Amino acid sequence: MKIAIAADHAGFELKVQLLPFLHQLGLSTEDLGSHSLDSMDYPDVAHPLAAQVESSEAEFGVLICGSANGVAMAANKHQGIRAAICWNTEIASLARQHNNANVLCLPARFISVEEAFQITKTFLDTEFEGGRHQRRVDKIGC
Q1: What is the rounded distance in angstroms from the CA atom of residue 119 to the CA atom of residue 110?
Q2: Is CATH 3.40.50.2300 correct for 2-140?
Q3: Catalytic residue numbers?
Q4: 50 within 8 A of 82, measured Cβ to Cβ
């Protein structure tokens, strides 16, 4: 499974710590930036990541910024992207089960590294339930 990952300057340090964790899980990653703590604009990494998930170049995406709001808003502009802000494992599980989320957005300023690991693992391990939820997900693209 290939995971695209990106962060702005506020999420850079968490991204750097999350990459080895993803590799330990046996996942392939593509790091789309940022590659430093220098201030940058989150849409500059969110849009390329969303495009990779949208085109199925990556199965899932992980976006990280201070609050996760900016990257989620930018990613969700793309057709077929369902970016979910997740701050705990229960939200991550529900985002996958009920919403078929395909981009995980992590709020670096509000969660610990260990929480990020657990949230990410839960998100990636959880299957979409389909059924009545599929009808609802289909209506998102209207």
Answers
A1: 13
A2: no
A3: 65, 98
A4: no
